[in-house]
Write a structure and sequence with these properties.
This protein is of the alpha+beta class and 170 residues long. The protein is built from 1 helix and 10 strands; from the N terminus they run H-E-E-E-E-E-E-E-E-E-E. A 4-stranded antiparallel beta sheet has the order 2-3-4-8, with no helix packed on it. It has a 3-stranded antiparallel beta sheet with strand order 1-10-9, with no helix packed on it. Bound molecules: FE2/S2 (inorganic) cluster. The site of FE2/S2 (inorganic) cluster has 12 residues, from loops. FE2/S2 (inorganic) cluster binds next to loops.
């Protein structure tokens, strides 16, 4: 009966098994590394539109000259903030009594300056090639006549109704 015993496994791996096992281990390490990178990227400062933020927070009292239009819902104003948004204007829109959108004023298509919505419910508009962007998110609503645009880079805005100050994170 001794002859009927068949080994179920070999303790010493073949060369092929050794290489296969090594590659599988490397794959696990690579995936773990990728996962760590993914988690880290989720923790980095990123705006809702996906542009990276440097974390600088700046207060803007709404009674500042040039921002008066933001005192009413649907109002919009451009603001240049030195050393932020590549020294280009941002466009701020008051969406409700307590919420605001701040996006770059530079069109993602070919860099023209976008226009604020004409009315409370219309889109941000770029006259150069007709692209339109959602006034609540900066996402593309209508592509330009040629090529394509992406969401306008946006910056989180917090509003303090007591002080009437908005704080924008760049
Ligand atoms: S630059 Fe804005 S649509 Fe072309």
């Amino acid at each position: 009966m001794k002859d009927d015993i068949v080994p179920q496994f070999s303790v010493i791996p073949t060369r092929r098994q050794f290489i296969s096992n090594a590659l599988q281990s490397a794959g696990i390490i690579f995936c773990a590394g990728s996962l760590a990178g993914l988690i880290q990227s989720c923790e980095s400062n990123e705006s809702p539109s996906g542009n990276s933020l440097n974390g600088t927070q700046i207060d803007f009292p709404l009674n500042t000259p040039g921002l008066e239009a933001l005192s009413k819902v649907g109002g919009a104003a451009y603001k240049n903030v030195p050393n932020q948004n590549n020294d280009k204007d941002i466009l701020i829109i008051r969406l409700t009594e307590s919420s605001f959108l701040a996006v770059t004023s530079i069109c993602s298509h070919q860099g023209c300056s976008v226009q604020p919505p004409d009315t409370e419910y219309s889109n941000i508009y770029c006259a150069c090639h007709g692209a339109e962007f959602n006034p609540e998110s900066g996402k593309v609503e209508k592509q330009p006549t040629t090529g394509s645009a992406t969401s306008l880079a946006s910056f989180p805005v917090k509003y303090n109704s007591v002080t009437n100050i908005i704080t924008i994170t760049f």
